[in-house]
Amino acid sequence: MTAATPLLPPADWRDFLALTKPRVMTLVVFTGLCGMLAAPPVNGHTIHPVLGFTAILCIALGAGAAGALNQWYEADIDAVMRRTQKRPLPAGRMDRQAALHFGIGLSAFSVILMGLAVNVAAAAILTVSILFYVLVYTVWLKRRTPQNIVIGGAAGAFPPLIGWAAATGDVALLPFLMFMLVFLWTPPHFWALALFVKTDYANAGVPMLPVVAGERVTRTQIGLYTIPMALAAVLPWPLGLTGPIYGWTAIVTTAVFGALAVRVATRTTGADDRMTPEKRLFSYSILYLFVIFGALVADRWVLA
């Protein structure tokens, strides 16, 4: 006779919130909002504030749903990594089935609401972004290849496209360049993190680049990926898609990013200081996207 599996107590609302990865969601929502605000008027009209709020809500819910499904699938990995052991599933505060149902339900609701309230184009891109993050990155790539972040980075790059599509019903070159900026930003951003938590990934059996190829290769790749990222960041100005506010902001902030990336790329040994170049690059990379997307909106509204 086998012992019955103990029932977990009902999860707290804060556990469901934690499933959505709210810190990650903040950047996703911000880039989606900036994509929407930077979009040109359609027939002389900008998106109605209620529809705009609904679109951003759907982006947030879709991102949260993807985060929940990611944690449902990776509960075993999270349990052996120090930085994720306190998440609701590995900490035993929530049943996996509840997380699965929550993620699926939130995904369906966000896409249906976007399609019915805003437009089909935005709903379609939102659907692709959720499926890409869950199926392509989480299920297919993350445990199989050190290129998981390179290819999977597309998942976090969709929000500017979604925001733009919500406002205009289509996509254009500028939001595509913003997509490419986030896509190319993801490897140096995430590999900088992976360099100082590589032991966690090694213990979990996740083939992140520092674990599989070593620090030297990872540092070189951070430097190499920063070059096309910088091009994607600056290109909208010479192409006439933005004005000088965005242009100069992109040049200055990207130069700082490049300088930090060079320090990481040319570093030969680890350091004992509390704020290493890797941590500086990781921290700045988050601020970088907030500033550059904020400048995109300022450029559009100040020069309009």
Task: Assign the CATH class of the largest domain.
Answer: Mainly Alpha
Helix content: over 70%
Average of per-residue pLDDT values: 91
Largest sheet: none
Structural class: mainly alpha
CATH topology of the largest domain: Tetracycline Repressor, domain 2
Tell me the distance between the termini.
74 Å
Compute the CA-based radius of gyration: 20 Å
Total DSSP E strands: 0
Question: Would you give an account of this structure?
Answer:
The chain folds into two domains: 14-170, Tetracycline Repressor, domain 2 (Orthogonal Bundle); 172-304. 71% of the residues lie in helices and 0% in strands. The longest helix has 26 residues, at 277-302. It has helices at residues 13-19, 22-37, 49-73, 75-80, 96-117, 120-141, 148-152, 159-168, 173-196, 198-204, 209-212, 215-234, 244-266, 277-302. The protein has 304 residues and is mainly α. Helix 3 runs parallel beside helix 6, helix 5 packs antiparallel against helix 6 (120-141) and helix 9 runs antiparallel to helix 12 (215-234). It is an enzyme of class 2 (transferase). It holds the Pfam family UbiA. Belongs to the UbiA prenyltransferase family. Protoheme IX farnesyltransferase subfamily.
Summed up, what is this model?
The protein has 304 residues and is an all-alpha fold. Helix content is 71%, strand content 0%.
